[in-house]
Amino acid sequence: MFLLLHNISGTVEIAWVKSHVGIIGNEAADAATKRAAKLHKAPDYTQYPISYIKYLIRTQNASAWQSRMVSLLKYEQAVLSFSKLADSILSRLKHFNGLT
């Protein structure tokens, strides 16, 4: 909001306004506050305890980490298998050519 006001040319006057004195904007704000107070609706974030939200975040992070680790391990196993295969082929070629 400060940046928005900062980019507007002109002057901004901030003044304290005594409540309930018939100022239209102030009366509208008071009316909106009273209506909201009568709703008795809790914000959505209070429907679940913070411990449950933390549990969900931990579970999702652990699942994502596990998935990345499985992918990494599969990659490493593939590299090791290829390396062993390459060593085996080289060993056979050396043996075939009489280099051993």
Kindly list the characteristics that best describe this protein.
single chain; 100 residues; mainly alpha; RNA-DNA hybrid ribonuclease activity; nucleic acid binding
Explain how this protein is built:
By secondary structure, this protein is mostly helical. The chain has one domain. Helices cover 69% and strands 0% of the residues. It is built from 3 helices and no strands. The longest helix is centred in the last third of the chain and has 47 residues. The termini are far apart. The mean pLDDT is 78.
Précis, in short:
With 100 residues, this protein is mostly helical.
Annotate the secondary structure layout.
Blueprint: H1 2-7, H2 24-39, H3 50-96
Organism: Euphydryas editha
InterPro entries: RNaseH-like_sf, RNaseH_domain, RNaseH_sf
GO molecular function, one term: nucleic acid binding
Q: Biggest β-sheet, characterized?
A: none
**Domain unit count:** 1
Q: What's the pLDDT, averaged over the residues? A: 78
Q: How widely separated are the two ends? A: 79 Å
Helix content: 55-70%
Q: What is the rounded Rg? A: 35 Å
List unreliable stretches of 5+ residues: none
The total count of helices amounts to: 3
Beta-sheet strand percentage?
under 5%
- The SSE string, one letter per element, is HHH
Shape field:
elongated
Structural class: mainly alpha
Could you tell me the number of beta strands? 0
